[in-house]
Each structure stands twice: as structure tokens, then as C-alpha cells.
């Protein structure tokens, strides 16, 4: 009953850092399902989702020694989310280079909204706030997780999620105000 399956994420990551492929397989079995589901909610292309999931675990293999703590969920999601953004940017560059867009490849409304979040003023403002605050906002607003779910995913207490979310909104408003100064109070 005991053994490798009973190891916490931190122990598995230490084993992965030491080159243990079985530990990576256990980590994959433990986390790939929910990562795939969350990625699929943010990206309609199943091939991109599979590639991002694979890239995530390749990154884990290469950088497991850098992870600290017992929980890996938040760290894995951060890697996966960044890989998804990279994949979307690569797709966007390819689409711009393509001579004629394919009418059948029209992005869904959700993809257009997420792209505006990633690449528009909100995305620029998000890049200006700290990574901890950004991840809380993405988990609670973009992914629609509850405070409890976000706390579990990110490996932090619920109270920390709430306080970071409040700080993140304040900093995001300030960053957006810098990008788009209000015309109120200016010359008429």
C-alpha cells in the first residue's frame, strides 16, 4: 500500500531532480488530468493543449530542483499557463505571417476575450503587477476558481488568496490608469 504513491509532491520533485523517471511518471499521473482540463478550458485546440501539457512536464524534468515546498499544483499551473501563452503568441506570429487567414479557423468568443486579456491593455497591466498577485487574479477571475480552489491550487492559505486578490485589483487599476489616463479633469 505505501511506497512511491504515498510520497508528497515535494518528495516526488526531489526525486525528479535526482533523475528519477518513475517519480516524474507519478507526478504526471497525479497532476496531468486536472492540468489538461484547465488548459482545455483556456484553449479550444486539443493539439495545443497536448503540446503545452507535454512542455510543462519537460520543464518540470529540467527544473524540478528549483521548486520549494510540498505542493506542486500552483507551480505546475504557473508553468502550464506560461507555456499556453507562449503557444498562443507563436500561433499569433504564424497567423500574421500567413498570406490569407482560414475562415474555418475563427476563434471562439472565449478565445477572443482571453486573447484580449493576454495581449491588450489588461494583459499589459497584468504584466506590471507581481507574479504572486497575477496568479491569484488569473486563478480567481480568468479561471473562475473559488477562493478555496485557488488556495489549494496555489498552495497558499485562503486568507492569503483574499488579501492578494484585493491588492491585485488595486494594483491592476493603477496600472490600467497609467496606460489609459482618464480624460476627466483634463482640458475640454
TrEMBL record:
InterPro entries reported in the protein's UniProt record: RNA_pol_sigma-70-like, RNA_pol_sigma-70_dom, RNA_pol_sigma70_r2, RNA_pol_sigma70_r4_t2, RNA_pol_sigma_r2, RNA_pol_sigma_r3/r4-like, WH-like_DNA-bd_sf
Record's keyword terms, sorted: Sigma factor, Transcription, Transcription regulation
Superkingdom per UniProt: Bacteria
GO BP term, example: DNA-templated transcription initiation
Pfam families xrefs: Sigma70_r2, Sigma70_r4_2
Keyword Transcription regulation: yes
A GO term, aspect molecular function: sigma factor activity
Entry annotated with the keyword Transcription: yes
Ranges where the RNA polymerase sigma factor 70 region 4 type domain occurs: 122-172
RNA polymerase sigma-70 region domain sequence ranges: 27-94
PANTHER family noted in UniProt: RNA POLYMERASE ECF-TYPE SIGMA FACTO, RNA POLYMERASE SIGMA-70 FACTOR ECF SUBFAMILY
Family recorded in the similarity comment: Belongs to the sigma-70 factor family. ECF subfamily.
Name of this protein: RNA polymerase sigma factor
Amino acid at each position: 500500500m505505501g511506497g512511491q504513491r504515498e510520497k508528497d509532491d515535494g518528495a516526488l520533485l526531489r526525486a525528479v531532480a535526482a533523475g528519477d523517471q518513475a517519480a516524474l511518471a507519478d507526478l504526471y499521473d497525479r497532476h496531468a488530468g486536472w492540468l489538461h482540463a484547465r488548459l482545455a478550458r483556456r484553449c479550444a485546440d486539443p493539439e495545443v493543449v497536448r503540446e503545452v501539457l507535454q512542455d510543462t512536464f519537460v520543464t518540470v524534468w529540467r527544473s524540478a530542483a528549483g521548486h520549494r515546498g510540498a505542493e506542486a499544483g500552483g507551480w505546475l499551473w504557473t508553468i502550464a499557463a506560461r507555456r499556453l501563452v507562449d503557444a498562443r503568441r507563436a500561433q499569433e506570429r504564424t497567423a500574421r505571417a500567413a498570406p490569407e487567414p482560414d475562415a474555418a479557423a475563427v476563434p471562439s468568443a472565449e478565445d477572443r476575450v482571453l486573447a484580449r486579456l493576454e495581449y491588450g491593455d489588461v494583459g499589459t497591466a497584468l504584466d506590471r503587477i507581481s507574479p504572486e498577485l497575477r496568479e491569484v487574479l488569473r486563478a480567481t477571475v480568468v479561471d473562475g476558481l473559488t477562493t478555496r480552489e485557488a488556495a489549494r491550487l496555489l498552495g497558499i492559505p485562503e486568507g492569503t488568496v483574499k488579501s492578494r486578490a484585493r491588492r491585485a485589483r488595486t494594483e491592476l487599476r493603477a496600472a490600467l490608469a497609467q496606460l489609459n489616463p482618464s480624460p476627466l479633469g483634463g482640458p475640454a
